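Chapter summary example.
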Amino acid sequence: MENRIKTLFGIRYPVIQGGMVWCAGWELAAAVSEAGGLGLIGSGSMSSDELRRQIRACRRATRKPFGVNLPLMNAKAESHLDVILQEKVGIVFTSAGDPSRYTSRLKAENVRVCHVVSSSRFAMKALQAGVDAVVAEGFEAGGHNGREETTTMVLVPAVCRAVNIPVIAAGGIATGRQMLAAFALGAEGVQMGTRFVASREASCHENFKKKVLELGEGDTMLALKSLQPVRLVKNEFFEEIHWAETHGVKPRELKRLLGRGRSRKGMLEGNIRHGELEIGEVSALIDEIKGAGEIVREIIREFEKELNRMKSLHL
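The structure predicted for these 315 residues follows.
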């Protein structure tokens, strides 16, 4: 049976690395692509000049397909789009915004477009906008999240039922067994962010990587629902924001508390106490920093092992 994600992106394995802010530079994207998956450069934290440099560095490091994650709510999205088209990037994953904004322009340049959604309603909008595939991201995921708080187990089959284009599952996936579960729900690929944060090639600070290994169940929580929901580590910064939210502080004051550069302070500069640390619930299952290529190969081995085990079951 054809796997449409592999065919669409020209990759060996339907494993996509999330384009996480401050974590997904060219080193990580190239390593994942070299291992047979699809690496993504996370443009959200970059200037246009830096994005251009990252794209060119990734192209020097691998001849395999790679792409760019383009957050549509980013103030630099328009200039980033120009860079993507000028540098002839063939794959773009859009997120956090209206997919109709740039999809037609990208498709006119033969770019394959995938959009991240948090509901079947948004999946249908993405389909109408002309995207080639969607990422159904459940609320277990780290970083910016949907207001619906729908889990991956519910979201993936709902999106598969709603659209006829390929669906990639995301949110709470870090192992081959979880990848197999996502396929059982109807997905044809998986996107993983948190697992690749804890990789040697991730561009975030070592303090952040080590913190990910320490996290257990319940150590992350969805916050900032009155602004833009985001899953964070429960550190001192989170506690300050959480207290403000639960005591009726208005969105304008919340923005002031956030200040500027909080995510940079936490994830890039390594301030574990007072920085914004975006990570998913599946961090509770991660206990080792590994090379990105090793992570891809480990996931595929476990997927195939569990698939064979499932085939031997008789109910």
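To summarize the output: DSSP finds 14 helices and eleven strands in the chain.
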